[in-house]
C-alpha cells in the first residue's frame, strides 16, 4: 500500500477510511530493541541496529504488525548521514543504511501480508484481508537534538548559533534519501521547537519531496512543546504546509495527551495523531528509565477511547510501549485481529 501519485491529504483520508476511521501506529522501536537485548548506548541509538542487527529490527516491526499496528515507523530516527560519517562510513554507505531502514520495514510488511495470505482467503481463494487492512511504512526523521544526543531533544534549546538554515542543511539530504526509498510518508518525530518545524516545512516546500509527511511534537507540561514554544504556533506551521497530512504529539506522558489533542484541534483540521510514551521519565545521568513514574499498559489503554473522542484518529505508542500496549490500543479501538498470537 502506497500513496503513489494521489494528492497527499486525500490519500491519508482514504487510508483512514479504509482503516475504519482511525488507525493504529506502532509502539516504541528503540526501547523495544533494547528489551530484546540490543545495546543502544550509542549516538546512533536505534540506528546502530541497522549495522549490527537488522533482523531484530524486522522482528520488532513484525511484532507490531501482528499486534495490530497499521503504520510502522522505521529505525532511522537517530540514523543520520553525519552520524554514520563520524563512525567512518562513506557518504554512499551512510545513504544506503538510511534506505535499508525503509527496506527492512517494507520487507516486514511483505512478510506480514504473506502470512495473512497463507491463513485468510475466501472461498474463491482471494485475500480479503488486504482490502481492509492497508499498512503504511513511515520513514522516521528525528530532530537535530536527537542527533546531538545532548539532551536538547527534550529541551528544544539549540542556542543562538542554530537558525532555520542550519537545520535545513542538516536535514536536507536525509529527507531526500528517505523520500526516495519507497516509504509511504515521512514521520518527523519528537519535534522540540518551532524553529525545527519551520525548517521541515520549508524543506518540504523547496525540495522535490514526493511523499507526504506528518509532524509530531513533544511536550513536558501538557501545554507547550518542550522548548516552551506555543503548541498552537507549531501546529499552525504544520497546518499551513500542504505536504503535511497529519499532526500531533509523541513521546509525551499519557496524562497530558487529552488536553494537547484539544489544543491541536483548535488550530488544524488535519487528522490528529498521538503516540505517547509510557509516562516513565528518563534519567539522563544514569541513562535509564525510572519505572515507577509510568503507567501500566492497562492505564495507558484506558485513555484510548477518550483520545479518540477528543478527535485523535491515529493512535499508537512511543518509548517504553510494547506490542502488548499496541494490542490493547487496537482492541480499545475495536480493531483487534482474529488469530494473531501474542509474542
Ligand atoms: Zn519516544
TrEMBL record:
The record's annotation in PROSITE patterns points to: HCY
Q: At the top level of its lineage, which domain of life is listed?
A: Eukaryota
Does the record carry S-adenosyl-L-methionine as a key word? no
Which one GO biological process term can you cite for this protein? S-methylmethionine cycle
Chain residues that bind Zn(2+):
251, 318-319
Q: Does the keyword Acetylation apply?
A: no
Q: Which SUPFAM superfamilies match?
A: Homocysteine S-methyltransferase
Q: Which GO terms describe its molecular function?
A: S-adenosylmethionine-homocysteine S-methyltransferase activity; zinc ion binding
Under InterPro entries, the record lists: BHMT-like, HCY_dom, HCY_dom_sf, Hcy_S-methyltransferase
* Hcy-binding domain ranges (all copies): 11-333
Phylogenetic placement of the source organism: Eukaryota, Viridiplantae, Streptophyta, Embryophyta, Tracheophyta
Q: Which UniProt keywords apply?
A: Metal-binding, Methyltransferase, Transferase, Zinc
Q: Which Pfam families match?
A: S-methyl_trans
Name of protein = Hcy-binding domain-containing protein
Q: Which cofactor does it need?
A: Zn(2+)
Amino acid at each position: 500500500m502506497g500513496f503513489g501519485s494521489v494528492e497527499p491529504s486525500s490519500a491519508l483520508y482514504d487510508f483512514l477510511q479504509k482503516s475504519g476511521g482511525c488507525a493504529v501506529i506502532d509502539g516504541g522501536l528503540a526501547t523495544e530493541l533494547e528489551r530484546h537485548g540490543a545495546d543502544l548506548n550509542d549516538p546512533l541509538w536505534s540506528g546502530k541496529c541497522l549495522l549490527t542487527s537488522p533482523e531484530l529490527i524486522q522482528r520488532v516491526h513484525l511484532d507490531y504488525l501482528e499486534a495490530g499496528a497499521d503504520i510502522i515507523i522505521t529505525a532511522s530516527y537517530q540514523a543520520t548521514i553525519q552520524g554514520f560519517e563520524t563512525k567512518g562510513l562513506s557518504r554512499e554507505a551512510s545513504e544506503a543504511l538510511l534506505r535499508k531502514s525503509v527496506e527492512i520495514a517494507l520487507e516486514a510488511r511483505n512478510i506480514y501480508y504473506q502470512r495473512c495470505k497463507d491463513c485468510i482467503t475466501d472461498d474463491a481463494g482471494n485475500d480479503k484481508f488486504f482490502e481492509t487492512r492497508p499498512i503504511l511504512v513511515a520513514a522516521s526523521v528525528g530532530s537535530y537534538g536527537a542527533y546531538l544526543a545532548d539532551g536538547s531533544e527534550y529541551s528544544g534549546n539549540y542556542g543562538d548559533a542554530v537558525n532555520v538554515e542550519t537545520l535545513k542543511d542538516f536535514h536536507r539530504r536525509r529527507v531526500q534519501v528517505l523520500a526516495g526509498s519507497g516509504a509511504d510518508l515521512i514521520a518527523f518525530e519528537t519535534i522540540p521547537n518551532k524553529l525545527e518545524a519551520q525548517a521541515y516545512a520549508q524543506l518540504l516546500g523547496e525540495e522535490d519531496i514526493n511523499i507526504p509527511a506528518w509532524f509530531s511534537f513533544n511536550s513536558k507540561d501538557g501545554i507547550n512543546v518542550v522548548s516552551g514554544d506555543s503548541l498552537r504556533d507549531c501546529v499552525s506551521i504544520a497546518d499551513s504546509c500542504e505536504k503535511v497530512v497529519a499532526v500531533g504529539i509523541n513521546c509525551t506522558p499519557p496524562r497530558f495527551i487529552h488536553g494537547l489533542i484539544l489544543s491541536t484541534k483548535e488550530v488544524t483540521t488535519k487528522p490528529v495523531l498521538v503516540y505517547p510514551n509510557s509516562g516513565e521519565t528518563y534519567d539522563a545521568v544514569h541513562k535509564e528509565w525510572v519505572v515507577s513514574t509510568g503507567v501500566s499498559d492497562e492505564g495507558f489503554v484506558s485513555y484510548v477511547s477518550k483520545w479518540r473522542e477528543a478527535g485523535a484518529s491515529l493512535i499508537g505508542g512511543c518509548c517504553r510501549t510494547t506490542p502488548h500496549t499496541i494490542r490493547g490500543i487496537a482492541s480499545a479501538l475495536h480493531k483487534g485481529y482474529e488469530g494473531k498470537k501474542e509474542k
